[in-house]
Design goal:
Rossmann fold; alpha/beta; 7 strands; 39% helix; globular; 7-stranded mixed beta sheet
Length: 210
């Protein structure tokens, strides 16, 4: 078993345990902002217990994938209670079981901090995103504020051990490396919380760039 496989299995166990605990839908303003922009065929990577489900527009064609089977069971119950029609499937963010150019929107909600290979997860999201489609994310990230970043660095060994939670990641780097066009970038809480919207260029735009 590779180091990434072992870490993925550890994270699965953490989220299986979390699925048994009641959790509030904290950060509703961020989730409302995030999900409200989804359009067309939409994939949420790391949908967990489905706390985003109340915030998606009615009639959206929603697919959710998550590493934890226990979390997905909770998400299915929540979807049934809300009357939300969503296809929920267990799987790995770095090996999505979907063809290229399949979704109009791909969503990440506070999940890239725990995926062992966050760069690979963003690359997979871009692969399954159609040309002209958008990647939406809200994540906690490495703060540009030096004092806050120092606190994050001190806390990260604890959060990694207890929750597999990285505090010093910056998804923006991966999004730009994949060639997406940044449309929106907002930061709050001393730069710790990041909202991002990026578009996958059309084929002719990509050809011109080359």
């Amino acid at each position: 078993m590779s180091a990434n496989d072992a870490e993925t299995e550890r994270i699965r166990r953490i989220y299986d345990r979390r699925a048994a605990m009641a959790r509030s839908s904290g950060g509703n303003a961020n989730l409302r902002w995030l999900c409200g922009q989804a359009e067309g065929e939409t994939l949420e990577i790391g949908i967990g217990r489905g706390r985003t489900l109340p915030f998606y527009p009615p009639g959206l064609r929603l697919t959710g994938i998550d590493l934890s089977g226990a979390a997905l069971e909770a998400a299915r119950r929540r979807a049934a209670d809300l009357g939300v029609n969503a296809t929920l499937r267990q799987g790995d963010a770095t090996a999505l079981p979907y063809p290229d150019d399949h979704f109009d929107t791909v969503v990440f909600s506070f999940v890239l901090c725990t995926i062992p290979d966050d760069r690979g997860a963003v690359a997979e999201a871009v692969r399954v995103l159609r040309a002209g489609g958008r990647l939406l994310l809200v994540e906690h990230v490495r703060s540009p504020n030096r004092a806050v970043r120092t606190i994050e660095r001190l806390l990260e060994p604890i959060t990694l051990r207890l929750q597999a939670d990285h505090l010093l990641r910056e998804p923006l780097d991966h999004v730009l490396a994949e060639g997406l066009e940044l449309e929106t970038l907002e930061r709050s809480w001393f730069g710790v919380v990041e909202r991002l919207v990026a578009r996958k260029p059309e084929a002719d735009e990509m050809a011109e760039a080359v």
